[in-house]
Design a protein that fits this description.
Radius of gyration: 20 Å
Strand order of the largest sheet: 1-2-3-5-4
Order of helices and strands: HHHEEHEHHHEEHHHHHHHH
Structural class: alpha/beta
Number of strands: 5
Strand content: 5-15%
Helix content: 40-55%
Number of domains: 2
Largest sheet: 5 strands, mixed
Distance between the termini: 31 Å
Length: about 375
């Protein structure tokens, strides 16, 4: 795989996650990064000078955060009704390792707010922000597992601490990801977004669209009510072309509309994605490409497929109408109802007609 493809795929390969697992995709761990050693994965008590990880209060300035009393998790999930799929008033919980700079917490919160304002506030949602220190990441893992136990008493802390892809891995290898917690085995349902200090770091422009990308996955999964893994996979599609393509295009589109973003940003970003056309095999469709070494093709051209759909219909048809009908109608019926033709028919037109156009003609469909 090309260096460009590897870097970009590893940047967002964790997005979406599995609805029924605490582990991020095994394929990401196998391909994008080495598995943490047993020593790295095991919990470690903080040193005597170590400051405990702090859940960041929305009311406090990031330079003046305090640790809540043990047991004081913001949401009493035992008493809370299941509001999955509904917009809520509750804001996310922000947790940061002790080495995370204040400006990164502020930046992450800002771009979450932009996403929630544009697409609606869904949750419950937690942000966990990891820095570069492995010791601080281990402390964050301990706090994470304490919160998991408090929100779902049936969870075992020792199992949580032994999970395969933990915050030490994020501190070592960077990236970002969403863990969707909604299944038949756990009482608590919610979303857990992890941001790190590199690939992308908070000083990079890519950091902002990645926050938006992860939050659009929250939007997608919030519109699938079922707790059954098979149903959630069927409605969100197993392969990345639909969910990742949608999250990537909507994130880049929203970012391009923000004040101060350079003119031509969306065109430049989407033009780079067209390079993946060269990697399509003869007769291959993006809907056939699984997560893995060639997954970046589905990310790139999946984003173009969403742009293609919106151009042929409207942004409302994709973001509002399709997701509104998804649970009741199922994927295929909701797709046909929203876009006027079946997914198979529009994929055929996309591959056989649109992707054969000159590049300038393809770019012309962008707003």
């Amino acid at each position: 795989m090309k260096v460009r493809e590897t870097a970009l795929f590893c940047l967002v390969a964790l997005a979406g996650g599995f609805a029924s697992s605490d582990e991020e995709r095994a394929v990401f761990v196998r391909w994008c990064m080495p598995v943490a050693s047993a020593a790295e994965a095991s919990p470690q008590k903080p040193g005597h000078n170590g400051r405990p990880v702090v859940p960041v209060s929305r009311k406090n300035d990031n330079r003046n955060v305090t640790m809540p009393a043990r047991g004081a998790v913001r949401e009493n999930t035992d008493a809370a009704a299941d509001k999955w799929g509904q917009q809520i008033d509750v804001r996310p919980e922000f947790y940061a390792a002790r080495d995370v700079p204040a400006f990164q917490i502020t930046l992450t919160r800002k771009w979450y707010q932009i996403a929630a304002h544009a697409w609606g506030n869904y949750g419950p949602l937690e942000f966990w922000i990891v820095g570069s220190s492995q010791d601080a990441a281990r402390q964050l893992d301990q706090e994470y597992c304490r919160v998991r136990k408090q929100k779902d008493p049936a969870r075992q802390i020792r199992d949580c601490l032994r999970r395969g892809h933990n915050f030490v891995t994020y501190a070592t290898d960077g990236s970002a990801g969403l863990n969707t917690r909604r299944n038949e085995n756990e009482k608590w349902s919610g979303f857990i977004i992890t941001m790190s200090g590199k690939y992308p770091g908070p000083e990079e422009e890519d950091y902002m669209p990645v926050v938006l990308h992860e939050y659009f996955h929250v939007y997608q999964h919030a519109h699938i009510v079922s707790r059954k893994a098979s149903v959630r996979e069927r409605l969100n599609r197993k392969h990345p072309w639909w969910s990742e393509g949608g999250a990537e295009y909507m994130a880049q589109l929203l970012y391009s509309r923000q004040p101060g973003v350079r003119s031509g940003y969306l065109r430049q970003t989407m033009e780079r994605k067209l390079k993946s056309i060269e990697d399509l095999r003869e007769g291959e469709r993006i809907s056939e490409i699984p997560y893995g070494k060639r997954g970046i093709i589905a990310y790139d051209l999946g984003a173009w497929f969403i742009a293609f759909l919106i151009h042929k219909t409207s942004e409302e048809a994709y973001r509002v109408k399709f997701f509104k009908d998804l649970n009741e109608e199922g994927f295929e019926k909701s797709f046909s109802k929203s876009f006027g033709r079946s997914a198979d028919e529009l994929l055929q037109e996309f591959h056989e007609t649109f992707l054969t156009l000159r590049r300038a003609e393809m770019l012309r469909i962008l707003p």
